[in-house]
């Protein structure tokens, strides 16, 4: 029993320094960890790094976008559509200017003709109409020139010359109508040719790949859009010209009836 106790005591004496060293090491480690934690807590947190986005997307001007799309659509197919737009606009602007210059204040002209008839007769009335520009004044001049042949001849002359003036007003509209029809056709032709090129690329490669057909389809879509835009623009100008011609024709008809009434009145009073 005493030997067993002595053995336990000897074992305890041998193990105690190791335990003590382990405790000291653990205390030092814990102290070091606490010190590092204190230092980390004391140290200020690093400021977040703010990365400024310096990439700014620059918007292209409208004319540059149109130019890029024109080139992307292949000038071979886009140029005929552009020519239709230029010529169509030129004809439309010429017609608009001509029709606006042909507009006449019919009430004022009728009042002048009536005063001239009362003061100087038919010749004075002719001088008034000849010095006035516009289709209405030209019709009046033709009617007054037939006054000596009777009122019926005046009416026939007004009707006949009115048809001539109406034809002059409608001059050039057929070209605008042509370009309205031609521009989409040229666009569709570019569409068909672009699709044919896309299928040729597929056939040559033996595989369907988006990169192969994208170019042809893009040309097809751009030419179609260009043709439709040109047709829409020219259609607006065409409709304006037609409405202006209708207004002028109505004025000519009303003024012609009023002129016949004035001549009948003048003949009766004479």
TrEMBL record:
Protein's name according to its UniProt entry: Flagellar motor protein MotA
UniProt family annotation: Belongs to the exbB/tolQ family.
Pfam assignment, any one: MotA_ExbB
Segments passing through the bilayer: 77-102, 173-199, 219-238
Cleavable signal peptide: 1-21
InterPro entries: ExbB/TolQ_transport, MotA_ExbB_proton_chnl
Organism classification: Bacteria, Pseudomonadati, Bacteroidota, Cytophagia, Cytophagales
Residue ranges of domain MotA/TolQ/ExbB proton channel in the record: 134-253
GO biological process: protein import
GO cellular component: plasma membrane
Cellular compartments annotated: Cell membrane; Membrane
Record membrane topology: Multi-pass membrane protein
Keywords assigned: Cell membrane, Cell projection, Cilium, Flagellum, Membrane, Protein transport, Signal, Transmembrane, Transmembrane helix, Transport
Species in which this protein is naturally found: Echinicola pacifica
């Amino acid at each position: 029993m005493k030997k067993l106790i002595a053995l336990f005591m000897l074992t305890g004496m041998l193990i105690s320094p190791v335990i003590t060293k382990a405790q000291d090491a653990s205390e030092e480690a814990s102290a070091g960890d606490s010190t590092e934690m204190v230092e980390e807590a004391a140290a200020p947190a690093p400021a977040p790094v703010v990365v400024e986005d310096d990439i700014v997307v620059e918007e292209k001007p409208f004319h540059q976008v149109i130019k890029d799309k024109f080139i992307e659509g292949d000038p071979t197919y886009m140029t005929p559509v552009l020519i239709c737009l230029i010529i169509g606009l030129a004809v439309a602007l010429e017609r608009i200017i001509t029709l606006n210059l042909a507009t006449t204040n019919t009430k004022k002209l009728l009042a002048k003709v009536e005063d001239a008839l009362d003061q100087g007769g038919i010749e004075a009335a002719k001088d008034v109409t000849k010095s006035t520009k516009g289709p209405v004044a030209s019709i009046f001049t033709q009617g007054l020139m037939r006054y000596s042949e009777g009122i019926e001849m005046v009416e026939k002359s007004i009707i006949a010359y009115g048809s001539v003036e109406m034809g002059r007003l409608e001059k050039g509209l057929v070209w605008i109508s042509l370009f309205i029809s031609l521009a989409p056709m040229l666009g569709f032709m570019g569409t068909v040719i672009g699709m044919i090129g896309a299928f040729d690329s597929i056939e040559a490669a033996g595989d369907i790949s988006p990169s192969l057909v994208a170019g042809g389809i893009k040309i097809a879509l751009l030419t179609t859009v260009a043709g439709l835009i040109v047709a829409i623009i020219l259609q607006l100008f065409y409709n304006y010209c037609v409405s202006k011609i209708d207004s002028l024709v109505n004025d000519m008809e009303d003024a012609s009836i009023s002129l016949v009434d004035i001549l009948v009145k003048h003949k009766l009073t004479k």
